[in-house]
UniProtKB/TrEMBL annotation, chains A, B:
This protein's UniProt keywords: Hydrolase
Organism for this UniProt entry: Ureibacillus yapensis
Renumbered ranges of motif HXTX 1: 34-37
Catalytic center residues: H34 (proton donor), H115 (proton acceptor)
InterPro entries, per the entry: 2H_phosphoesterase_YjcG-like, Cyclic_Pdiesterase, YjcG
GO MF, any single term: hydrolase activity, acting on ester bonds
Family: Belongs to the 2H phosphoesterase superfamily. YjcG family.
Alphabetized Pfam families for the sequence: 2_5_RNA_ligase2
PANTHER family with a match to the protein in the record: PHOSPHOESTERASE SAOUHSC_00951-RELATED (PTHR40037:SF1), PHOSPHOESTERASE YJCG-RELATED (PTHR40037)
HAMAP family in alphabetical order: 2H_phosphoesterase_YjcG (MF_01444)
Protein's name according to its UniProt entry: Putative phosphoesterase D1B33_03035
């Protein structure tokens, strides 16, 4: 089964991201707007209790995530993905690294770049047009996120939450 | 903000429901297949901590939900909704009633009929055709669900999980 670990921002911020996603993001209907903390990984259903306990113990260490979406960026030319850039912080880097190390499943494909995807699967021309527009509009949102979610993927590509973990620590 | 309380069945059973939902359910992309335990209700974001604690205390009382999806039924003529009927049990009735009483928000519109929706927003003719077909195919799935979810709705109609509660009691 395919799992991932994400942080959902506030409803208000998700609604903002969705105004773009519904037009430009092919995964719009598969999951609501989120920051991926641990990329999708395969795990056996029988291991999920252990994995969940590991995540719970990491979540206990961390305080709510302070996030600042500061601008619209793109992963072009690696992929034609446009996103709200979340300013990197030690806190985000550390929780990502803790999850990565503890689970040790699925080597990260990319350097961790915290973000909220707002457009993907665009042609090169679409990408250039839309990125030009959205970069001008920009984004500037700050908030704290007090929980993270372990999610799993159904056969149709959609994601369901398996468990939530409140961030109740000090780091 | 609009909230609801649901139980998601296993991935396998969700995948089965989605084979129908992707063709026949207008809400297919808004939430993955689920049993609604408490219908959508409005609550202030500032009250959600209290509501969440109330749900947690109820969840502690109950053992994992034993469910048996026994046949394909329809709410016609009330609505053109086709669903997997979940056999009513005291356990399901009690957890629904506890949630309803404790939250005391939004009178239930209908008698509680545990189900998983697989088709809705059909014309009368579509309903009759599809119901005829699906009733013949039928369903017979038994499983236990060890957690419930508090979900909230975004402006586009999609639902995000706020919190999960494991059913760790004996009832």
């Amino acid at each position: 089964m395919k799992y991932g670990i994400v942080a959902f921002p506030s409803k208000r911020f998700q609604d903002l991201a969705n105004t773009y996603r519904k037009r430009y993001d092919s995964h719009y209907s598969k999951i609501t707007p989120h920051i991926t903390l641990k990329e999708a990984f395969e795990a056996d259903e029988s291991d999920i209790q252990d994995i969940s306990q590991t995540i719970a113990s990491i979540a206990q260490k961390y305080a709510p995530l302070m996030i600042h979406a500061s601008k619209v960026s793109s992963f072009y030319p690696t992929t034609n993905v446009i996103y709200f850039k979340i300013e990197p912080t030690n806190q985000l880097q550390n929780i990502h690294q803790d999850l990565q190390n503890a689970l040790n499943i699925g080597k990260p494909k990319h350097v961790f770049t915290p973000h909220i995807t707002i457009a993907q699967d665009l042609t090169a021309t679409e990408h250039d047009d839309i990125f030009g527009q959205l970069r001008m509009i920009g984004v500037n949102e700050q908030e704290s996120i007090d929980r993270i979610h372990l999610v799993y993927q159904l056969e149709d590509g959609s994601w369901t939450t398996y468990e939530t973990y409140r961030l109740t620590g000090a780091e």
